[in-house]
Amino acid sequence: MANSKYEYVKSFEVEDEIMFPNLIVVQIDGRHFRRFSEVHEFERPNDEKALNLMNACATFILEEYPDIVFSYGFSDKYSFVFKKTTRFYQRRASKIISLIVSLFSSIYATKWKEFFPQKEMRYPPSFHGRVICCASIEVLQEYLAWRQKDCHVNNQHNTCFWKLVESGKTEMEAQAILKGTQKQEKNELLFQQFGVNYKKLPEMFRQGSCVFMTQEEDIAKYSEDGTPVKRFRRKGKIVHSENIAGRNFWNGHQSLVNALGGFAVDLGKISPDYIRSFLFESKLMPSTWIVIRIDGCHFHRFCEVHEFEKPNDERALNLMNSCAVAVLQEFQDVIFSYGVSDEYSFVLKKDSKFCQRQASNIVSVIVSFFSSTYVMNWKSFFQQKELKYPPSFDGRAICYPSTEILRDYLSWRQVDCHINNQYNTCFWALVKSGKSKSEAQHILKGTQTREKNEILAQFGIDYNSSSVIFRQGSSVFREEGILIQEDGESTEKLGNKVTVEHCNIIEQSFWKAHPTILA
């Protein structure tokens, strides 16, 4: 990020490192997935294809990030456990949560057609994320036991509930029948009324799914004489176990013991409140402007693999803009956003109560929705180009106490846009002229704005005449009001249209023209 007089705003960024020796668990949970399941007509109480899609996403993540050694999931929930020695993204909670949730969301949207080939995804899914800091292996053991117990309790209740509904009961009647019933009573109801032996239901429904990595021998290539050359490679393995927090299961997998430690005893009673006390959470300061800034993860490689135009690919920028528009349409508390390259900043209104102002929830939901929207919108901008692998974004939340400082933050990002774009325009002009990348970097080292403009002039490029989206980035906001004619009379009505403009947001004129954005 470039130096400027606005750079002081970085001092408002707060580090959120998870200290050793805490074990890191990232828990994700589908946002409004009951509605998502209804809209996409998932089978009740369990849709095996939907569960296998979740498992495929979890497997992909473990194969992508070696620091994650175990995961457990059921329904629309998944927990990812990092090895105890991890230094993944310097153990920064916001980075870890946002990356896992973002990639999971992208994979979910990418792999949808593998599991639902006859069903269109009607809108982007999104997930909440949080970090659990397990102070010891014993806390992790209790956490896993709690999650699996939750799986059993919820699945048994839902199985009973939907059997009652299918038999003709209303949802309210089914709820009334099940109210206060215990495990044994639910089992009797299923067996006596519907002939269902709960213990005979598929293990995945009753026990959830575990994913961990194994070393499998695979043929890497063939030698000249046709002999196969074998290598060991990491591969995700999905298993179902009745007691994942038991010693028999856990200690029976040496890779888990090596990465996290063994379980000394089998557990008795579980206390969910005790586990929740290890939740790594911070509420953002009230009456401050919240900014959620997201950045593409390893987007330099992503751009090369997908052959984006250099120095700017207008289709890629418009794809990013379409995702930002979708975020403002989905989340009414987001009032303004500014984007450049693979980065976007979202401003929430000052008095926002969104997600109870919990940093991890806000960051994860926005980055998740942005990521799945990116995948869903890809074909609208790259009709002839396949998405070769799922993108991911990291995010963080920053609070700014005044409108002036918030505007300085946005000015900082726009100054950064100009400086980086001018440099990149020069760099790629030099490379396209025959210079090596090292030579281009050497030529540009220490140059100022005027000197870069002179270099560009040598190639017949007037920087100030280049596309405004490249030079000034994109501002996304709602129209403040539109004049509507009704029965021959003019009436002012508040519009809800989200618009994208490429304009100077450093100058006062933009904010005077749109006074209600930061009102």
UniProtKB/TrEMBL annotation:
* Organism per entry: Jatropha curcas (Barbados nut)
Q: Source organism's superkingdom?
A: Eukaryota
Task: Give the enzyme's EC designation.
Answer: 2.7.7.79
Q: Which residues form the tRNAHis guanylyltransferase catalytic domain?
A: 6-134, 273-401
Asked if the keyword Repressor belongs to this entry, the reply reads: no
The text of the family note is:
Belongs to the tRNA(His) guanylyltransferase family.
GO biological process per UniProt: tRNA modification
The reactions it catalyses are: a 5'-end ribonucleotide-tRNA(His) + GTP + ATP + H2O = a 5'-end phospho-guanosine-ribonucleotide-tRNA(His) + AMP + 2 diphosphate + H(+)
Question: Per UniProt, what is one GO molecular function of this protein?
Answer: GTP binding
What are the record's GO terms for cellular component?
A: nucleoplasm
Q: What is this protein called?
A: tRNA(His) guanylyltransferase
Please give the function described in this protein's UniProt entry.
Adds a GMP to the 5'-end of tRNA(His) after transcription and RNase P cleavage.
Q: Give start and end of each Thg1 C-terminal domain.
A: 139-221, 405-506
The Swiss-Prot or TrEMBL record lists the needed cofactor(s) as: Mg(2+)
Instruction: Report keywords, A-Z.
Output: GTP-binding, Magnesium, Metal-binding, Nucleotide-binding, Nucleotidyltransferase, Nucleus, Transferase, tRNA processing
Q: Enumerate the subcellular locations listed in this protein's record, separating them with semicolons.
A: Nucleus, Nucleoplasm
Which Gene3D superfamilies does the UniProt record give?
Answer: 3.30.70.3000
